[in-house]
Amino acid sequence: MKKLVYLLSCLFLLSAGFAACSSDYDDPPEQPESHQNETPMDSTTVDKDTTEVDSVDVDTVIYNDGDSLPMLEVGRSWNYVRTHANGMTDKVSLKLTESLIIGSDTAYKLAYCTPEDTMVRYAISLPAFYMKKLLFSYDLENGKEKKGFLPFLLGWGASTFKWNFGGGPAYEQHLPGKLRVMDEIAVGRTKYKRYALFDDNNKTVDLWISGIGSMKTGILVGERYQDIVGTDVLTFESLTDGEGSLLCRATDFTASSIVDANYRPLVEDKKVWYCAEFNGAGTAGWQFQYFTDGDTIVGGQQCLRLYGQNHYKSGLTEYLCALYEKDRQVWFAEAGSEEFRLLYDFSMSYDETMTLMFENIRGRSGTMTKRGDNYYIHDGQAWHAHIFNGPCILEGVGADSGLLMPLLVNITGGYYSLLLCTVDGKVIYDSHEMNREDILPVTLQ
Questions:
Q1: What span, in angstroms and rounded, lies between the C-alpha atoms of 340 and 342?
Q2: pLDDT for 352-392, tens place per residue?
Q3: How many Cα atoms are found within 13 Å in the side-chain-facing hemisphere of 66?
Q4: In this model, does residue 56 exceed pLDDT 60?
Q5: Cβ of 381: how many Cβ atoms within 10 Å?
Q6: CB neighbours of 106 closer than 8 A, spacing ≥ 6?
Q7: What pLDDT band is residue 133 in, cutting at 50, 70 and 90?
Q8: What secondary structure does DSSP assign to 187-227, as a single string?
Q9: Parallel, antiparallel, or unpaired: how do β-strands 301-309 and 284-298 relate?
Q10: Which residue of 97, 205, 211, 333 could cross-link 66, Cys pair, CB 3.0 to 4.6 Å?
Q11: Rounded CA gap, 361 and 353, in Å?
Q12: Rounded distance between C-alpha atoms, residue 214 and residue 219, angstroms
């Protein structure tokens, strides 16, 4: 996932590259028995409640992946009810009629079929590059000019999405609203990603479904849709495949999310965060770890102790700060201080901003603005990821760049990555960026 952020920094961070959460609970790196090179820790302690937090329960139904189904095929039809100015209605469709080669891409002519006429203005292609997430349109009346696209890699919180590939021309797409939420729904036995776009008044203006398109404009958006449909008012009704078989109805996509992402606290004892620094080629170099180990009381507040191992290449295992969590907010007090500062706020809403202040533990200071939510399910575990203007922060885990590095998504010539997170030796998060046997262990008592 961090490779995606680094290599495509022109894009806003979005869900397409989120790291997978492992449910097979393989053994994490072996843990030696005692702290090494440990600096003195706070001597005030209290007995701790070691209540185990269970894994999130999710639906065990096995779904087909809608992203793997063909989106473009001859005969596929997006079907609508058209409403005229006088209130009369009829049935129309946007239908892929035949394939053709444009440059190196296979494209499909898109016909607007009405009772009175059939118009073919654009061809549609789904290039193989970049995970087939960008659907381009070509203007057949203007020298097959590539004019726009339907992006399933969306700019979080943005109303304009820009794309530039390989130094070629820049493409810009104006979205009908701002992406706030991405989750997953099931239609029959097929699972689809659902992207909800909202206006400035927090009202839903459109739903985009992976492998299907917009619930309002089908396979076209913006100016391309207006070029074909004009001032007609269309209401999406259904999608049929090349054989004319029904694939889905519009009402299918108002269903409840299949994601059951119950809140999991971040501050838990015996939790370990394994991190690494990667260069621009994706090769790991410096590895570092954070872990909670034991209780303490700071300024009358019961906390857990957070240690760093090789924090900023120190070569030491050292006490960094005390942590506690309340009302979905995580607070920390640096070693030797009783002043608590905010580390994470999982109660934030869209467009809210939080300020982070670090002094001695070098986590960088600055502000972050929330841009959306991603309800993501994978390998039997569900997670709520909070999308900010830069980092992705997961409940129960923290920033995907490292627990104390939510502001350090990219660095010059590389990036930071959270590799693995465990609680009491059980893996709850795995980015799959490094083989577990290559991850350096943490020393726990």
A1: 7
A2: 998 887 766 665 677 888 888 877 655 556 678 888 877 78
A3: 21
A4: no
A5: 22
A6: 99, 100, 125
A7: low
A8: ETTEEEEEEEEE-TTS-EEEEEETTTEETTTBT--HHHHHH
A9: antiparallel
A10: 211
A11: 22
A12: 6
CA 61-62-64 angle, 5° bins: 135
3-class DSSP state of 176: coil
Q: How many Cβ atoms from other residues are within 10 Å of residue 299's Cβ?
A: 11
Contact 431, 420 (CB under 8 A): yes
Residues 139, 143, 148, 151: what is their CA dihedral angle, to the nearest 10 degrees?
90
Residue type, 92: V
Tokens encoding 358: 């670090």
Place of tokens 């000019």: 145
- For 193, left (φ over 0), alpha (ψ -120 to 50), or beta? beta
| Residue 50: other Cβ atoms inside 10 A | 10
- Residue carrying structure tokens 């007090």: 333
Q: How many CB atoms lie within 10 A of CB 51?
A: 8
Q: Is the pTM of this model over 0.70?
A: no
What is the identity of the amino acid at 411? I
> How does pLDDT run across 285-319, given as a tens digit for each residue?
888 899 999 999 999 999 999 998 887 777 888 89
